[in-house]
Specification:
Layout (H helix, E strand, L loop, with lengths): L1 H6 L10 E4 L5 H18 L3 E4 L3 H7 L5 E8 L2 E7 L5 E8 L1 H10 L4 E3 L1 H5 L1 H4 L12 H13 L29
Parallel strand pairs: 1-2, 3-6
Antiparallel strand pairs: 3-4, 4-5
Helix pairs in contact: 3-7
Protein name: Gcp-like domain-containing protein
Pfam families: TsaD
């Protein structure tokens, strides 16, 4: 964060708000990112705003026809949403096998796919894959929150979009340490 602020010739006190991608995404990475954003907002006394991370992929890809935005969810699944020609989310976010997402997206008229998940599963999706955007862009996240920021909207709780249970599970019993 220090490097990003230095590139902009800014300091933390110059920030007016914090915008964070809410996911969907992996449990630990999402949790760390959102806790960091919330902590910065609290320490600096500035509002925080959340945006669905898929919106930062689907919105800029809108070009008049519906688009499928997908990110890799691991376990041979994708996180996905469908956006209309104006970039507004019409379905999602959801998590499923790529074939299920592709079928639903085609039902909704999607003609292209974007995002890392689309690249990874291009053959299964059977939709043309646009090169960019592949990942959420911070500038697009800020753009999608800009109206709330300009309006001076109250700070939002940064609630992660978890679409499935985490891989880690609590131990159910003690393991013996002696033979």
């Amino acid at each position: 964060m220090d490097a990003v602020l230095a590139d902009a010739d800014a300091r933390p006190r110059d920030l007016a708000a914090i915008v964070a991608g809410l996911g969907p995404g992996p449990f630990t990475g999402l949790r760390v990112g959102l806790v960091t954003a919330a902590t910065m907002g609290q320490v600096l006394g500035i509002p925080t705003y959340g945006v669905c991370s898929l919106d930062a992929i689907g919105y800029p890809a809108a070009s008049g026809a519906p688009v499928l935005a997908a990110s890799d969810a691991r376990r041979k699944e994708i996180y996905w949403a469908v956006y209309d020609g104006a970039g507004q989310r019409t379905v999602g976010p959801e998590v499923s096998a790529p074939a299920v997402a592709a079928a639903r997206a085609r039902e909704l008229g999607a003609t292209i796919a974007v995002g890392d998940g689309a690249h990874r599963y291009a053959e299964v999706l059977d939709l043309p894959v646009r090169v960019e955007p592949r990942y959420p862009d911070a500038t697009v996240l800020a753009l999608l929150a800009a109206e709330r920021i300009r309006a001076g909207a109250s700070s939002e709780r940064l609630t992660p979009l978890y679409l499935r249970r985490p891989d880690a599970v609590a131990a159910t019993g003690r393991k013996p340490v002696l033979p």
